[in-house]
Amino acid sequence: QVQLVESGGGLVQPGGSLRLSCVASGFTFSVYAMSWYRQAPGKERELVAVIPSAGGSTIYADSVKGRFTISRDNAKNTVYLQMNSLRPEDTAVYYCNAKRYWNGYWGQGTQVTVSS
What we know:
The protein is mainly β. 0% of the residues lie in helices and 53% in strands. It has strands at residues 3-7, 10-12, 18-25, 33-39, 46-51, 59-60, 68-73, 78-83, 92-100, 103-106, 110-114.
């Protein structure tokens, strides 16, 4: 069955870094655009970053530009989110998403907490 499994979240101090991973299975990963979303308590889920199926041009939310980097390894069915210079406002549950035309899948999320 389809699975997206995120990992790499945790507690980090402001200014620190984390690297999230999302391992996909059960579908043809290489033809899907992959995204990271996040949802903070009491807020709507928001798009963080997108990477097309073949890599290349990426899209970032203004709030994370220059600090976060999305990448993918189609040989490993994995998408990554490198997060640097983390801020308290980056605290949220981070979700992995796969999308192709009308098909879409979500992971279960991983908690990122930025606090001193």
